[in-house]
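Explain this one:

_____
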Amino acid sequence: MLLMGSAQAVEIETVPVGDLGNADDVHGAGYGGVDYAYRIGKYEVTAGQYVEFLNAVAGGVDTYGLYVEGMAIPYWGSDITRNGDGTLSDPYTYSVPPAAVDRPVNFVSWGDTARFANWMHNGQPTGAQDSSTTEDGSYYLNGATDTAALWAVTRKPGATWVIPSEDEWYKAAYYDPQKPGGPGYWFFPTRSDIQPGRDLADVSGNNANYGGDPRPIDAPYSQTIVGQFLNSESPYGTFDQGGNEWEWNEAVIGDSQRGRRGGSYNWEYKTLQASARFYADPAGPSQSFGMRVGLVPEPSTVVLLGMGAVGLLAYGWRRRKRI
């Protein structure tokens, strides 16, 4: 089991999203235009990566409820268990079995996602949930946990690891500068305008984990391993932007909601479409809610060369090795 964290343990593989100045998708309610380069997670944040986060900042008092009991249920949750009573003599520890370590984390709220992004921005520190770990960084949270407070949070200047904006998320999922017939958007984030299948054995591509029978995997799990559907990536190389888990984005909707896109393992295929825009209470975790993070702006080659090996590790260019 993956148990205790270590310095700079989480390495998130990202893919570059370029093609600056692309137009919005006129068939998708006007989303997807981005005029700067950025990077986005190739995969959804996994249970193993989230366990490292929990062990780093929620080992004493889990001040802002980054762990919920539903995470422990393999069928509905991420199979993440918590031991200890949260005291100095018996602090919390979190673990996940090898079979679940590379499946997406779920039961996470928008606030949990922002705190994870802050932790990544701050270099993955260990300690209480405060301004040096989870409460400041790419987002100023300062203890925000209720709907109104989380709805009002904005990305700070100088942010690095972030929750993707709706345009950033949409472009990475659907836009293809080399689409046959000219640059444009696909209906599904599998480089297809045709409904994806659900067959893990089909290596021809255009498959995803969404609701329906028969299920693509056997019990006790509902989420597939991230990237498990071969040749089903988006034009930029991301996996599972359709299916597995809904993913939060930064969109502010109405007077209390935050955006989510991509559908999940228990929703129908139509929720994977570019036209399917959904939202939810940013304070409310669910078995259908996961996360994907981005990195903005894309660091220049000069900066990367100056950072060296230590800096590259800190920014997590490669996904954590599977256990």
About this structure: The radius of gyration is 18 Å. The CA atoms of residues 186 and 192 lie 6 Å apart.
